[in-house]
Amino acid sequence: xxxxAEASFGASAALIPVGLYCVREAVRxxxxxxxxxxxxxxxxxQQIFEGFVWLELGRGAARPDSPAALAFLFFAFWFWPxxxxxxxxxxxxxxxxxxxxxxxxxxxxxxxxxxPIVTEPERYLAIEVVRHSIEYQIGAIPISKVIPEMVLRVxxxxxxxxxxxxxxxxxxxxxxxxxxxxxxxxxxxxxxxxSIWCLFAALLSLYLGVYFARLPRTIKRG
Length: 222
Known about the structure:
The structure is a single chain. Helix content is 69%, strand content 5%. It is mainly α. The longest helix has 25 residues, at 5-29. It is globular and about 50 Å long.
């Protein structure tokens, strides 16, 4: 699989308009789903940052303290494990206490993954192209000395995927697709898991355009 700057920028060119459409529809129809609607838009911004990482790699090498790489990893490591449970908790009453627990876990896990990297990038981060994909090589950050990397990935994915189980069938299907893409990313592209998974999940989030197009307007009762 060959990923490139063109693929990242092309994905963002598709995601951002769809994300803006979803946000508009959420505002019109059901404002409580605004955080959910913003997911394609935010993925589009994240893909722009990875596009710049590709450009840096094309010029020779991406430094560990590259603002584009650190911005991409902020979304991958910290933002998504918090945002996904939050976006479901905003409108799902069923299971909301559990969703808030997942939100807290996501924020804690994200902090433990990202803060060591952003504070000491030269110590913990190396970036290179491996088999036409970007590998973000993460050193022995403190949490990895206590919890094995594979366990961290399982927890990370559970925090992101499980919230969709508390929603309607359409979002459960979306969550299942994200889970399937996670398994493919791990099995086939484990060396570049976060880069590949974020791209797959970003493209899958285009489905939310269909979801919000079909979303009925919430009737306000006076």
